[in-house]
TrEMBL record:
Record field: transmembrane: 135-156, 168-189, 196-214, 260-279, 291-318, 338-359, 380-402, 414-433, 440-459, 479-504
Domain PTS EIIC type-1: 130-516
Highest taxon of the lineage: Bacteria
Protein's gene: scrA
Chief location: membrane
Name of this chain's protein: PTS system, sucrose-specific IIABC component
Membrane-related topology note: Multi-pass membrane protein
UniProtKB keywords: Cell membrane, Kinase, Membrane, Phosphotransferase system, Sugar transport, Transferase, Transmembrane, Transmembrane helix, Transport
Amino acid sequence: MKNKDYKASAQLFIEAVGGKLNIQSYMHCVTRLRINVINKDIVDIAKVKTSKLTKGINWSSNQFQIILGTGVVEAVYAEVQQILDDPKKEITENKSKDKSLEDFKTQAKNNKERLRNAGGVLGVIQNAMKGLGEIFLPIIPAIVAAGMAMGFAALFKNLGVLKPGSHFTDIVDIVTKTAFDFLIVLVCWSTVKKFGGNPVLGIIVGLMFVSPILPNKGEIASYEAWLKFQNNGGTEEQWKQAFNKLPELVEPWKIGFIKITGYQGSVLPGLFIGIIIAYTEKNLKKIVPSAVNIIITPFLTIVISFTIGLMILGPILLIIESGVLIAVKTLLNIPYGFGTALVAGSLQAIVITGCHQILQGLEMQLVVDGRTNTGAMNGSIFNAIWTVSIISQGGAALAVALKEKNKDDKRLHISSFISTLFGITEPAIFGSNLPKIKPFLYGLAGGAIGGFFVGIFNIRCSGMGVTVLPGLLLYADSVKNLLLIIVGNLIALGSAFILTFFLYKQKNKAKITKANV
């Protein structure tokens, strides 16, 4: 396809939807150019279909979706952006009945108010999930790729192919871990872009929250687990037997009564901080004199958003994490599989908040306790709980993929499912399940069912850090445990798949029409 085809189609699409005046906002996902229009009545659908790039169209409220396919949509979006950002570019405005600029502005305001009030609380939730999907769609490919690489790396480490401490292993870790360690940067960038701010400011502030100067949450959890192990009479030799080396002394910073940590691997804080950045920048532009706006506004935006994230959002998150840790510990003590069911059914919801990192210390403590005790405590049950909670989201994503009619979207959901086989749920959660709400809930239910099985049969292993397919190696020392964890995975996957496939119904199917090409 030639660049002139992309440019011509971009020009045609802009004119067909009514020109610049009728475009409230625009974005793209993996396959579709999504244009939020002010007045639906003046959109010329027939004109859109005349483009040979158009595979179909779809309406979702006031969002006009032009289905173009992977690869093509990015190229067309770039051309649309270039045209709309060029003040010298003349575009035929497809106005309706003498509508003025003020008329369009008034209608745009009314549209926003109508969407805000549509469907009450349920409508608000659905709009929020839709927005969440739009934020995560641009970063899903990077997470899927990193997740696949991380899964293979974990497998090769367990097989002894990748040796700890070698430079080659360090290079592999850079390739596999960067996207997840810096996840808040990606989320900040996409959120700020979604809410109309400067995405570069999102990147800068996001990088500040994962600065190596700040104490790493995962390292804090490891060190706290080591201290608790020592207090319970554990020795250095026993710890090294489980984890090869002792953790470094890392503690949260304290400014008065406020505890401060980094945000490595966090998702939800990135959303809140991104919104703060966008709205802070917008409001500052209204009050800062234009002569110094280019200097003062970015500076104050960075300072204000970083301070709020560090001094207010951070401590709140630490309090929530402490509550999550206490709750999980309490639930694990409930017998007959009910405790493990509740934990497995809630873990992926905890992942969304970013509070799951606090559980790393708990898992380390359970692993080392299992290695230094005998009988029923020989090993940790937590890895099995993690595993079934992950694969259940994969089962839901697979069901979504099979029900999806659009081939490009289907491929995205299948990729999300494959990533869960290697222990990575973010693509499945944010790319497939959570934006649709019910598949995510069915995934949680599948995790709970799998967790019940894990608790009933007390499935344990003596390691951590890898799950699902790579994690099977942790159970290879016992044929019984290996078979049980495989069955547990199948139960969790199958339960989530069945619930999603038979109970989840896609919306707007009838509104999708194919272009006559």
